[in-house]
Amino acid sequence: MALRAADAAGIAAAFCLGTDTRLTGPIARGQLGQVWRLDTHEGVYAVKEWFAEPDLGSLSASTALHERCWAAELPVPEVVRTPGGDHTAVVAGTRVRVLGWLELMERTRRLPPAEVGRLLAELHLVSRRTTEPVIPWHSTGIGLDVWRALHAEVSAAQAPFGERFGALVDALVSAESVIAPPGQLLVCHRDLWSDNVLPARDGRIHVIDFESAGPADPSHELAMVLFEFGLDEPDRVRLLHQTYREAGGPGRVSRRGELGCRGARGRAAR
């Protein structure tokens, strides 16, 4: 079941957020769910609902990184828990989570590179090491057969980007062929595109949507961020990388294999 405006009081009760409730939206939509705005007499909140039941184990792990960042006073929204300590609840048959509200601005890849570099270093410095395996999408790639199967799926669904996607399959496989295997592993955000690294009206750059977090090489994530926010401009790339290193970030991009991780491959597939 999908949320409705009438579910405002139920959500507020589940998370003990007060009265005088109003649920507006959806105000944003992603691949896995959508976000509503909840107003109560205690404040304003973002409410995430999923289109399908999420994996609660993976969600708990990603929430742990999210809350480590919040505790370190990084610019991320606060995770609001229920009185019983849960980070999700089922309201009107729909699983939801609640986050602190941020006045975010339009996405842009032209964020100040020095600020992005420092922020990424701070994210990596609060992350914990892990020995959990890295899924192929974040390590070796998924291979020609899977790319062809994905193309067949989007073509069968008559997706508007199906033809363009098909034309990119060979280039995507070629990009995967130079991916370096991961080295040191941290629990990383793994989805730091400009959709999730956003300017806000408080003047800071904020990171949202930690639900893809998991094991990754910080050098690979650094390469991905260099690709996304460097804009193929050498001065921007150099400054972002330099600032990241000066802030103590553990990742290094020194060979082509690091750039293969989620760069052109990931952006082209989006």
From TrEMBL:
Key words, A-Z: Transferase
InterPro entries to which the protein is assigned, alphabetical: Aminoglycoside_PTrfase, CcrZ_PhaseVar_Mediator, Kinase-like_dom_sf
Annotated Gene3D superfamilies: 3.90.1200.10
Domain Aminoglycoside phosphotransferase: from-to ranges: 26-246
SUPFAM superfamilies hit by this protein: Protein kinase-like (PK-like)
Segments crossing the lipid bilayer: none
Location of the region described as Disordered in the Swiss-Prot/TrEMBL record: 251-270
Keyword flag Transferase: yes
GO molecular function: transferase activity
Listed PANTHER family: CELL CYCLE REGULATOR CCRZ, PHOSPHOTRANSFERASE YTMP-RELATED
Designated name of the protein: Aminoglycoside phosphotransferase
